[in-house]
Specification:
By secondary structure, the protein is of the alpha/beta class. It has ten helices and ten strands. The protein has a five-stranded mixed sheet. Helix 1 packs across helix 2. The longest helix is centred in the N-terminal third of the chain and has 14 residues. The chain is elongated and about 60 Å long. The relative contact order is 0.19.
């Protein structure tokens, strides 16, 4: 049975990317066991898509807030780390392709628990007259300016390119600049390196210096789904409890408030 959960917790501990990469280097040079042994109290290490950072910092499982360490990055980057031997216990991915890249790593099926939608944000001085991506090909004022999206191998980038291609907007490609993950894409607009960006709705909702001018409909393709898997090597029951909690809807209320969507859209 999954323990009851609460969303009122203290700060969530997160292992820094630098620390994890150092640990990853030890995995390659000294073997898998050394890094596992260095983790205090066999804490559950969660590899999570960068777009879920606020979700998990706001509402982590309440049965033991000290039991989890998170490493946030693009799902494709995390999949590469797992293939290189990184000993994550849980993988929360923004797309199915990244999970397929680590086929054989997980035990059981990868289960969907939340969705998201594609959104277009604009720098405040570029938002006028934009209510749909096709408007970027409209008035002369909107035919200029860089458009940020995730790199081609990143889920956020693949979702954006698939939508643009499906809607006949490949002509915008000459204006693309790329971010290494979903959070970095939004950062390009906030830093003034791009005028527009295709991001997840949850990212658009947290933006302070840009305007969300369009959001994809709930039934528009591609459908964005977050899935969770547990490693075959996971030895801490908390890894399974965390995954079960997500699938049971434990993060739904917080997720919806942040701009995520249900699996139905």
């Amino acid at each position: 049975m999954v323990p009851s959960m609460s969303c009122a917790f203290g700060s969530l501990r997160e292992r820094s990317r630098r620390e994890w990469l150092l640990c990853g280097g030890a995995l390659i040079t000294t073997g898998l066991a050394g890094c596992r042994a260095s983790r205090a109290d066999a804490r559950v290490l969660v590899a999570a898509a960068s777009s879920t950072r606020e979700l998990f910092e706001t509402c982590a499982p309440g049965f033991d807030p000290t039991a989890l360490d998170f490493s946030f990055d693009a799902s494709s980057t995390l999949a590469r780390q797992i293939r290189a031997g990184a000993e994550f216990d849980v993988f929360v991915s923004a797309d199915e392709r990244s999970l397929l890249r680590v086929e054989g790593w997980g035990r059981g099926e990868y289960r969907a628990f939340l969705g998201n939608r594609l959104a277009l944000v604009a720098r405040a001085d570029k938002a006028a007259g934009i209510s749909h991506p096709r408007d970027l090909l409209g008035e002369p004022l909107n035919r200029e300016g860089a458009i940020a999206l995730g790199a081609p191998e990143v889920p956020a980038g693949r979702y954006a390119r698939a939508w643009l291609t499906g809607n006949g907007l490949d002509a915008l490609a000459s204006r693309f600049v790329y971010g290494r993950n979903a959070r970095a894409v939004l950062g390009l607009v906030e830093a003034g390196a791009a005028e527009y960006a295709f991001v997840y709705r949850s990212e658009a909702n947290r933006a302070a210096r840009v305007r969300c001018v369009w959001t994809a409909g709930p039934l528009e393709e591609p459908r964005i789904r977050y899935r969770v898997g547990v490693a075959r090597s996971a030895r801490n029951e908390a890894a399974w409890s965390f995954a079960d909690w997500l699938v049971a809807g434990g993060a739904d209320r917080t997720g919806l408030a942040l701009g995520f969507s249900t699996l139905e859209g």
